[in-house]
Amino acid sequence: MAGAEHDELFEVKNSLYIGNYQCCINEAQKVKTSDDAVRVERDVFLYRALLGQRKFGVVMSQIKASAPPQLQAIKLLAQFLQDPQQHTSVVPMLESLLSSSSLDPGSVVIALAAAAVYCHMDNYEAALKVLNQHDTLECRAQMVHCYLAMHRQDSARRELKALQEKDDDATLTQLAQAWIHIAAGGEKLQDAYYIYQELLDKNTSTPVLLTGQAACFLGQGKTEEAEAALQEALDKDPNCANTLVNLMVLAHHTAKPQDVSGRYLAQLRDSHKNHEVVRDLLAKEEEFDRIVKQYAPVSA
Amino acid sequence: MLIKFETKSNRVKGLAFHHKRPWILASLHNGVIQLYDYRMEVLVEKFEEHDGPVRGVDFHFSQPLFVSGGDDYKIKVWNYNLHRCLFQLVGHTDYIRSVKFHHEAPWILSASDDQTLRIWNWQNRTCLSVLTGHNHYVMCGEFHPTEDLVLSASLDESVRVWDISGLRKRSSQNLFHQDFRPGAQELFGGSHDVTVKHILEGHSRGVNWACFHKTMPLIVSGADDREVKLWRMSESKAFIVDTMRGHTNNVSCVIFHPKRELIVSNSEDKSVRVWDISKQNRTQTFRRVNDRYWILAAHPKLNLLAAGHDNGFIVFKLERERPAYDVFNHLFYYKDRYVRRYDFQSGKDVPLMTTRRVGNFAQNSGSNPRTLLYNSANTNQHNIIVITTADQGTYDLYVFAKSRDRDVDQRTTESPSPLRGVGKSVAFVSRNRFAVLDRDHLQISLKNLSNETKKKLRLPVTTVNHIFPAGMQRLLLRCPDRLILYDTATAHQINELVTPGRFPVKYVVWSEKHEFCAILSKYTLFIADNNLQQLCLISETSRVKSGSWDPAGAFIYTTQNHIKYCLPSGESGIVRTLNVPVYVTMVRGSTMYALDREWNPVVIEIENTEYAFKIALGSRNYPEVARIIKSNKLVGESIISYLLKNDFAEGALHFKQDPKTKFSLAIECGNIESALECAEELNSTDCWQKLGTEALRQGLQKVVENALVKTGNLEHLSFLYFITGNLPNMRKMLTISECKDDPMSQFHNALFLGDVETRIKVLKSTGYPQLAYLTAKTHNLVDQMNELKQDLGDREMQIPDVSKATLLQPPIPILQNEGWPKLEVPKGVLTAQYFHDLEVEQNIDAKQQEIDRDTLGFNVDEPTEDVEEDDESWKWGDDMDITSPKGDKDPDEEAGNSDIGDWSDGGEYSAKDSDGPLDDFFMPNAGPPSRQQWMQNSPPVADIVASGSFDIAMVALNRQFGIVNFDPLKPYFLKVRSCAQIQLQLLPNTTAIESALLRSSSPSLPLIGFTFQHCFEILDACYKDVTAGKNEKAIAAFKDVLYTLPLLSTDSSEQLKEILDMLKICREYVTALRLLKQRKQESDPVKQMELACYFTLCSLQPIHIYIGLLHAVKLGRKIENYRTTAVLCRRLLELAISIELPANLQKPIRQVKELLKVCEKKNTDAHELTVSLRAGSEVLCCSSFQSIAQNKRISCPYCDSNFDADCHGRLCLTCNLSIIGNQAPGFSQKAGGGRSGGSGRW
Predict the structure, then answer these.
(1) Which residue intervals make up region (Disordered) (chain B) (predicted)?
(2) How far apart are CA B861 and CA B858, in angstroms?
(3) Do the chains contact at A298 and B1213, CB–CB below 8 Å?
């Protein structure tokens, strides 16, 4: 990035990465450009921000069939996010998009979309394979994400090094560094906290950053601070699944009455049926009920 | 050369600095003497008495005097306080070239064109001596600053040193002689008093000026031969050391620099030149275009010089005196080629590193670093940038590790070598980046700590001439007319601030939390927020020097002569005055740290109360306001008017001493206490009335009473007594009214009191016998009735008809003197704080300490987790002995492995890792989730649950506690499961990842959502519920604990013991509460009695047993089981002694005592009970609530509740978890001991 000229989309991208979707959308709408490539890129970020706000329908209806392949990929991603059951149709289409535009500059976006879908399906290997084709910051960061999800901190750290060499100051690099710190836990949590604090100081606070910081607090046993951060995150986005999950966990740890955590869970179940935690809990409940039967208690 | 002050006037021929005041005298060619204040830059006064040019002036060092000499041959001595010339000394016969005071003797030395110097005594206004010898105009003369020497320079090409020790001796011996024979000296010639010591010959033209060195035996002279000569003198001779050539015209004046090893000369060639004594070369030249220089003067103490020329004079410094420093936790500053670190707390001042030499004349020529920058964003390293203006500006970047272990002193030898770059405007922007302004290319270079350019940003405006740091990835760009806040990440301009005025912004000081910045230019001070929104603007008349933010939010800054404060709200004021400028580095409370002009750290105590008070008030921090008021440091009307102005009468109340004002303020804010105090002091009816009204409004009857008494308002008072039902006082009022002979009030009082006889008496005495009769009649007072009848008859008045009269009785006060409901007067925040702040403070302190301890403990406990440790975990495949729930996934993963290649060899893997080039990317397979790791080493049940292996957890619970009914545990399992991990959103549009929460005590294990503390709290709440009779709620809560216990992770045997204790408590209470429930459903009183007795045998809190006993006693009496009741009564009474009981439970004790007597008397039992009342001897079946025989007793394997053998195989009724009669080790297994005996026995 040395010597790079001013990136018109910097604010747009940065807002998306830190999860400030509305700001991303606003900024994207402000960008006036004559360059087609930039325009498409801008739209990609715009739609991704809409996805971040879970406005899947908007994205799907806005992207026309004639749109460039990048946007098609985003559309497919939207389709998938709205209904994960559709992966059977979405994945092959994404793959064909990928293979047909393997050398286009826009293929990065397709790769990211595909990787996102793979990640949702827990198929990190496939995600990594796709991502590895591209040497952009976001792909690298996404790879860090995959490695962490695979519990491979060592590989994640290696990827981080690559990120740092590319651009040490970039928001994505900072974030990736923070994730790895959090995954490592212990004393590293404080470093992660600093990173989030720095980002919070620099930008407006977003649920993404706040939950990240709350994770640091929780890991350090600072429940009060964690609660403050999470409450702020909830204020920013009352429907953010991760915030709700973390608030539920926090409620457990702070021995809040059952109904507090129950309320968060109900809220989760209501609006995020497909969230991993919701599914996990449901599965565990079922598992519990199943196993309990084996003990077949004598009725009292 | 830094010009501090400049004047425009006629040619300046003489200059003199005042020793203490910021004054300078300039004598002009046109005969005027001007007195300037160079600090305030104003002309103070003009003295116009000389005729023709005035060439010499001098201040007296202690008296308010100065002397001048001019072309009118006159020496004038002036008193500047009196603004006039005191007298003149006449004797010279030609122009006077210079005049000087002696530093201690009352002497004046004058040099004149009449080829002589004269020494005068200005006290008796005589000439002491005439120094003859020069054979041309004597251009200057001066006393040696310490020795008895005089120096003169003359156009005869020589410089002479005269010895005046004889003069001094004579003057001290013959004081009288002198006084009484003025002018004697002239008669006899003074040559024997003053002798020529040395004649310095070497100049080839007339010498214009010569000067002694203050401490060394050196003389410097300047002459028309355009040379400056340095002479050394010894006792016997004087010789030329050095000749300095360079001036291109007559050298008019030359002096030694008062602080440095420098010579400063000026000349008619329109230049001032600076020469280095030790290196014998010219270091600097400062030229003027049109003006020839004539005179130089040095300030006796400060680092200031003045030079007079054809059109005025200048006051200047050769180099900046401002130290280069930066503050981040510590003070980092430059001194004598070291960067030093000063610890504000300990006052420890250590050299941190040496700096490289800059330029050729490190010591002398103003080549000291101008700026020092410390990177506050880097927590691991010291990053210091030192900027010098030499060579068009260079910066040196020093990067070195913060080593906490080693002592800093040792490191001074191994100083880091700097990375150098060109540029004088540099700022750190992030942990590892700094920005350098490159004006030539109109760009900002972002560099990393290796001084490599990483990024170049085009300047948004071409006029940017300086950059200041502005926090993370931000810069402030200075243009001539504004400041721009600029984001280096986005290359965007965020905001701008217009900075009018002709002086550029010089410094920007950020507050510690980066909320505010103070922008300093020469005479103005802006405060802006972190987005450069201007908050306030302060204009100063003297130069703003430096500033620092007080942590509370005040900006403390220094000007030339003051320490001042400024709040973001715009409030500002003077903290104290300064004699010499200092540079603030840090302010902590009332301590201000600064660097002085010698670059030494100094500590200055300042009075911070005023601004601390304003801040506290502004931020509504009333505890602080109260504290300040209490400490009583603030006095004076100004603060009171400030408070009143800010609508804060309550605050003002605490200052006001004048009782009258205080009283009205107190009434205004409803503070009755203060008002009462003042009223007592003032003791005026008016006050008491006001107070009474206000107190009445608030319902404070005592105060009202007091006020009414003071005002003597008896009517109101008796009415007050009446409505408050204060009968005794009303009776007093009656007496008073009787004494006062006021029948009306007497009647009223009697009426209110129901005192019929008095009423009759009053009525009779006031001439209403009919009414009196009526009264007597209605109250059936026969004697008086008859008497009155008699009386009426006597007076021949009609006896009133009493048939319609009804009895009038005043109501009987039920609540006497219990006061009224009081009006809730919002207690002023301040008043409230006034009394409670101390307590709060202590709490906060304690809390803080606790937090400190916690965090400390946390840090200590937390072992460092290294990369290695992670690698270790890779051996999981071998160690796993518990099948994971996801186990069936493993084969897939193995399959995935095979096409990537076998990399079970960890060493090879990490070797590949370190290179990590993109091309040989290979797919790693997934690592073990942290959940799986929790399953290793046969962990506690909770950890198994957290890992999600419910099946294994249940097996374990079944084995250990015989639990078969897991249903009640379901929420607990799910809670533990969901507790251990949180979700972390990384990138948009993708999944979140899970992040494990780990125990701080053992960082490889998950955090469990249940804690002992939690259980204790539940139990405490339960006890209260039981006491309050909320049994259903309590029973649920006890069960809650009962279900939590298996999932508590125990680290020690103490904790295990606590678990067992809690288990017992829960078991006993659940049983007891079930007994209670049963009893309430039971209709047979005998059965009820039995259940009540059983209740009392559970091990409960004494208070609960007490309540149980009360019930049992009642029931026992009902069924007439006196003997049993007696036993119960005794137990109850014993218990009542040993515990503290709430009032409502103490009442029955007396009845019980009486009952006991009755029972002991009767001592029979009407019914046979199955329960014997000896505690510990009996075992109750928790199912049937009957006693069980010793041999038929079985128990629950989890909670250890006892049951009759008949219940075998049924689910335990206490815990609902396990099968009665099954065998399981229970909790005690882990402790390694047997089950604690006796628990559960009755």
Answers:
(1) 854-936
(2) 5
(3) no
Indicate yes or no: CB of A152 within 8 angstroms of CB of B457.
no
Does residue B707 belong to any structural domain of this protein?
A: yes
Reported as a single tens digit per residue, the pLDDT across A126-161 is 888 888 888 888 888 988 988 888 888 888 888 888
pLDDT recorded at residue B391: 66
CA of A131: which chain B residue's CA is closest? B921
DSSP B871-913: HHGGGHHHH--S--TTGGGHHHHHHHHHHH-----HHHHHHHH
Amino acid in position B1192: K
Q: B716 is written with which tokens? A: 């109101």
Is residue B405, in this structure, part of any structural domain at all?
Answer: no
Share of chain B above pLDDT 90, in %: 15
Cβ A59 vs Cβ A71: under 8 Å: no
Of the partner residues B379, B471, B928, the one whose CB lies closest to the CB of residue A151: B928
Average pLDDT on B510-533 reads 87
- Quote the DSSP letter at residue B392: G
| Token pair listed for A76 | 């497919």
Residue B1235: is its pLDDT beyond 50? no
Phi and psi torsions of B282, nearest 5°: -85, 130
Query: How many Å lie between the alpha carbon of B982 and the closest alpha carbon of chain A?
Result: 5
The DSSP bridge partners found for residue B111 are: B98, B117
| Measured CA distances, B1190 to B1179, B1180, B1199 (Å) | 8, 10, 19
Q: Which domains does chain A have, with CATH numbers?
A: 187-272 (1.25.40.10)
The whole domain housing B779 covers 622-792
Cα radius of gyration rounded to whole Å, chain B:
50
The answer to whether the Cβ–Cβ distance between B984 and A194 falls below 8 Å is no
Per residue in B293-305, pLDDT (tens digit) is 999 999 988 888 9
Per the structure block, which two tokens stand in for B522?
């020469």
Please give the average per-residue pLDDT across A224-233, as a whole number: 89
Cβ <8 Å between A219 and B998? yes
Q: Is residue B729 part of a domain?
A: yes
B514 CB-near residues (< 8 Å, 6+ apart): A201, B471, B530
Residue B774 is assigned to a structural domain of this protein: yes
Assess B1006–A contact: CB distance below 8 Å, yes or no.
no
Q: What is the pLDDT of residues A212-227, one digit of tens each?
A: 888 888 888 888 888 8
Contact B966 A292 (CB under 8 A): yes
CATH of the domain at B688: 1.25.40.470
Q: Could you read off the pLDDT of B632-647 as tens digits, one per residue?
A: 655 555 666 676 666 5
Which one, of B423, B449, B422, B446, lies nearest residue B435 by Cα? B446
* Nearest-CA distance B1017 → chain A (Å): 10
| Number of structural domains found in chain B | 1
Q: How far is B963 from chain A (nearest CA, A)?
A: 9
Number of Cβ atoms within 10 Å of the Cβ of B697: 13
Instruction: For residue A198, give the nearest of B472, B492, B978 by CB distance.
Output: B472
Cβ separation of A288 and B432 shorter than 8 Å? Answer: no
Residues A164, A169: Cα–Cα separation, whole Å:
8
Q: Which H or E element spans position B59?
A: strand B54-59
Compute the mean pLDDT over every residue in chain B, rounded to the nearest whole number. 79
pLDDT at B56: 92
